[in-house]
Amino acid sequence: MPHILIVEDEAAIADTLVFALQGDGHSTEWVSLGQLALERLRQQPADLVILDIGLPDISGFETCRQLRRFSEVPVMFLSARDSEIDRVVGLEIGADDYVVKPFSPREVSARVRAILKRMAPAPAVAPAPASTPFSLDTLRMQIHYREQLLNLTRHEFRLLQCLLEQPERVFSREQLLDAVGVSADAGYERTIDSHIKSLRAKLRGVAADAEPIQTHRGLGYSYNPAHA
Questions:
Q1: What is the pLDDT of residues 52-61, one digit of tens each?
Q2: How far apart (Å, rounded) are the C-alpha atoms in residues 77 and 169?
Q3: Among the listed residues 90, 94, 70, 72, the one whose alpha carbon sits nearest the alpha carbon of residue 81
Q4: Are strands 220-223 and 142-145 parallel, antiparallel or unpaired?
Q5: Which InterPro entries has this protein been placed in (predicted)?
Q6: Can you give the chain as a three-state secondary structure string?
Q7: How many Å apart are CA 198 and CA 40, to the nearest integer?
Q8: Does the pLDDT of residue 131 top 70, yes or no?
Q9: How far apart are CA 48 and CA 192, in angstroms?
């Protein structure tokens, strides 16, 4: 049974989420402060965190930033702020979805199911083709490049995995957004550019002269073994 931690300072909203999620077969826990959530997650991992941005102690954004230092648990932001910059910031610091208040509990439940489905572990190791300098282990969520282990975030791992598994295929930003586990209907495909930039920096740290990730202007990105 998936366990979901709800971080929300308004009791009425938290009660609504608890009722909807438990009715969907999930176990839930509720805390009202960001620091309490961090302490709880250090002690007992959750399968997903629903995180309000406007918390009374530290913001949901800051809570997520601190959380990402020790955990890659999926995060869904809740907020009354619906500006594009808030959504983009939320996704770029590691969130998987962003839901604006007021919201439908049924919609939140559906989004939770979708995130958990996307985050389900792969059934077996799927190595990259032998002709490439990459070694992909989907069970351990590790990728080696030229025999060096890359220090990747969960989003970076899934993004690189997607590219490696279909060399030379051009993926649109929307397709890659879905591949990393971020709800495509959250929009803001340009967050992929930020992940690609970070990935390229890590790859150049191993091989400065290589450029395995290719940009296709107006289309998206691909992996080219010839440049790896």
A1: 999 999 999 9
A2: 32
A3: 90
A4: unpaired
A5: CheY-like_superfamily, OmpR/PhoB-type_DNA-bd, Sig_transdc_resp-reg_C-effctor, Sig_transdc_resp-reg_receiver, WalR-like, WH-like_DNA-bd_sf
A6: CCEEEEECCCHHHHHHHHHHHHHCCCEEEEECCHHHHHHHHHHCCCCEEEEECCCCCCCHHHHHHHHCCCCCCCEEEEECCCCHHHHHHHHHCCCCEEEECCCCHHHHHHHHHHHHHHHCCCCCCCCCCCCCCEEEECCCCEEEECCEECCCCHHHHHHHHHHHHCCCCCECHHHHHHHCCCCHHHCCCCHHHHHHHHHHHHHHCCCCCCCCEEEECCCEEEECHHHC
A7: 30
A8: no
A9: 22
pTM of the complete model: 0.63
What amino acid is encoded at 61 in this protein? F
- Residue whose token pair is 């962003």: 98
Return the amino acid letter for 112. Answer: V
Domains of the chain, first to last: 3-119 (3.40.50.2300), 134-227 (1.10.10.10)
Nearest alpha-carbon partner for 126 in 143, 114, 147, 150: 143
Q: Specify whether the CB–CB gap between 80 and 58 falls below 8 A.
A: no
Strands 27-31 and 3-7, by their bridges, are: parallel
- The residue among 188, 183, 190, 184 whose CA lies nearest residue 221 is 190
User: What does the pLDDT look like over 183-226, one tens digit per residue?
Assistant: 655 555 677 888 899 999 999 999 999 999 999 988 899 999 99
